[in-house]
Design brief:
It is a single chain. By secondary structure, this protein is of the alpha/beta class. The chain folds into 2 domains: 253 residues, Carbon-nitrogen hydrolase (Nitrilase/N-carbamoyl-D-aminoacid amidohydrolase, 4-Layer Sandwich), CATH 3.60.110; 198 residues, HUPs (Rossmann fold), CATH 3.40.50.620. It contains 16 helices and 19 strands. The strands form 4 sheets. Strands 5-4-3-2-1-14 form a 6-stranded mixed beta sheet. The protein has a 6-stranded mixed beta sheet with strand order 6-7-8-9-12-13, with helices on one face. Strands 17-16-15-18-19 form a 5-stranded parallel beta sheet, with helices on both faces. Helix 5 crosses helix 6 and helix 8 packs across helix 9. The chain is elongated. 47% of the residues are buried.
Length: 544
């Protein structure tokens, strides 16, 4: 029996649109002579649907769509992710389910057993776990169907497991001779390689082929990379879906294929392609056609401009230079060079008159008080006001340009450079911004060399550099990785990097700026631990 894996990019809540993708994929699978067409986890709803599933009207629309999908099926099976409901259950009554249809009806439902509740996952808020797993015999195969997290608990791969229950092991004990996993697994760099090694271990040990179907696309801040995988009965990866785009894969578990060894590109390539997809999907799914950003002459805004062009096209990106009396000549000329290289439209609006007006208005209240960061922030906030005005007037999606190092330490201005609808590189450290810029320039200079080599500065006072307030970025990023992603504390970080006073100061900056991040635009997630929904720390706290 040939299988088709339909790696689709659903839209959360677009039941009609997602249903059409499922039916179109099913027709294609039938035309290809496949016995079973497989779609990802919650493909009908989009993942994660969050509190939409609490609305009775939404659930009814889903159940109606399931019946309509089932009604058009013939002998070819159709397996897709949806929600199901059990009115007799104590709890939420809802299940994250795999629904198998053929011959005009829903023939089998397998509910998800392992309900994740860590990082960006909050499924225990909505779904009950399956009480049991079952084998379904179909076209001479004993199908062992599981859903995403269910397959991430193999005792022979993981030294530490999150669950005592292993539903895939139970399926194998019950005689499954073909494993199918439908998934919506969020992207982070390195995860696809880990996924391949984990699934290869499982298949090689149990000598059972596996079809793993994952969705692709961006859902607000979460990126889904696709990369659906098929393994033969020896644990060899033999089919791999496209990365960061939709795909349709035909897999015959009984056929011979050449094994695939490499599943992941280099960091710069992967992360860049991921955030390009993230910007594109965020804009298109919300109905934005054009993007806007402030261009400072620095490397962060240059990178965001490049990403926006790759995502939306050069005709749909507009940049604005917003100089003040402290802006260097190089900031303007370097920006002009970038604008020419990218072929985008631009404007220059001086903020000085607006800043002077605000300072004059505040002068009586500020009398006798020495100037400080307040005046610097007014400059940034005037830029934010002007950019938001342009975005509102012309329907632009305003992109913020702060990197993860800045967002972590609060080296950004609330209601200033943090204004916008999407934080494009807020999960990319400053040192990685430079790496990605060099990768972009690998064949020809796109981001001007002067921007890449420039000493970072916010240009909010004379001769200012970032290192007036922060340690060198290579040291800073080492501290932040330890603290944010490795969950290390002060003593452990000092062991790694030394400089106890600097470590203490940086950890304090991260902690006291939590209030800013709570008000920030959603940040596209490319790392193991990103700011936003997957990192929840109290604003008011006195741990240290």
């Amino acid at each position: 029996m040939k299988l088709a894996l339909a790696q689709i990019n659903p839209v959360i809540g677009d039941i009609a649109g997602n249903k059409k993708k499922i039916l179109d994929g099913y027709k294609k699978g039938v035309a290809e002579g496949c016995g079973l067409v497989i779609f990802p986890e919650l493909a009908l709803l989009g993942y994660p649907p969050l509190d939409l599933v609490e609305k009775q009207g939404f659930r009814k629309a889903v159940y109606t769509a399931v019946e309509e999908i089932a009604a058009v099926t013939g002998e070819t099976g159709l397996l897709f992710g949806s929600i199901t409901e059990d009115k007799n259950t104590v709890g939420t009554n809802l299940f994250n389910s795999a629904v198998l249809c053929y011959n005009g009806e829903v023939q089998f439902v397998q509910q998800k057993t392992l309900i994740p509740n860590y990082d960006v996952f909050d499924e225990m808020r909505y779904f009950e776990p399956a009480k049991e797993v079952y084998i379904h015999q179909f076209r001479g195969k004993k199908l062992g169907i599981s859903i995403c997290e269910d397959i991430w608990n193999d005792k022979d791969y993981w030294k530490h497991r999150l669950y005592s229950n292993d539903p895939v092991e139970r399926l194998l004990q019950k005689g499954a001779d073909l494993l199918i996993n439908i998934s919506a697994s969020p992207y982070s760099y390195g995860k696809r390689t880990e996924r391949k090694e984990m699934l290869a271990t499982l298949c090689g040990k149990d000598k059972v082929p596996l079809a793993y179907c994952c969705c692709t696309g961006a859902q607000t801040d979460l990126l889904f990379d696709g990369g659906s995988m098929c393994f033969d009965g020896t644990g060899r990866l033999v089919q791999l879906g496209k990365i960061f785009e939709e795909d349709f894969i035909v897999f015959d578990p009984d056929a011979e294929y050449q094994p695939i060894e490499r599943v992941e590109g280099i960091f710069e390539e992967e992360v860049l392609n991921g955030v390009i997809m993230g910007v594109r999907d965020y804009a298109l799914k919300l109905g934005f056609k054009k993007a806007l950003l402030g261009l400072s002459g620095g490397i962060d805004s240059a990178l965001v401009a490049y990403i926006a062009v790759r995502a939306l096209g050069k005709d749909n990106v507009h940049v604005v230079m917003l100089p003040s009396r402290y802006s260097s000549t190089g900031s303007i000329t370097d920006s002009d060079d970038l604008i020419k290289n990218l072929g985008i439209s631009s404007a220059t609006i001086s903020i000085q008159q607006a800043v002077d007006s605000v300072l004059q208005t505040l002068a009586p209240s500020f009398e006798g008080v020495q100037a400080d960061v307040t005046e610097e922030n007014i400059q940034s906030r005037m830029r934010g006001v002007l950019l938001m005005g342009l975005a509102n007037k012309f329907g632009y999606l305003l992109l913020t340009t702060g990197n993860k190092s800045e967002v972590a330490t609060g080296y950004c201005t609330l209601y200033g450079d943090m204004c916008g609808g999407l934080a494009v590189i807020a999960d990319i450290y400053k040192t990685d911004v430079w790496r990605i810029a060099e990768y972009i320039n690998r064949d020809r200079e796109i981001i001007p060399r002067a921007i890449v080599e420039k000493i970072p500065s916010a240009e909010l006072r004379p001769n200012q550099t970032d290192q007036d307030s922060l340690p060198p970025y290579n040291m800073l990023d080492d501290i932040l990785r330890d603290y944010l992603e490795n969950n290390k504390e002060y003593d452990e970080i000092v062991e790694d990097v030394g400089e106890p006073d600097i470590v203490r100061r940086i950890l304090r900056l991260v902690d006291i700026n939590e209030f800013k991040r709570k008000q920030a635009a959603p940040a596209l997630k490319v790392s193991y631990k990103a700011f936003g929904y997957g990192r929840r720390y109290p604003i008011v706290q006195k741990w240290r």
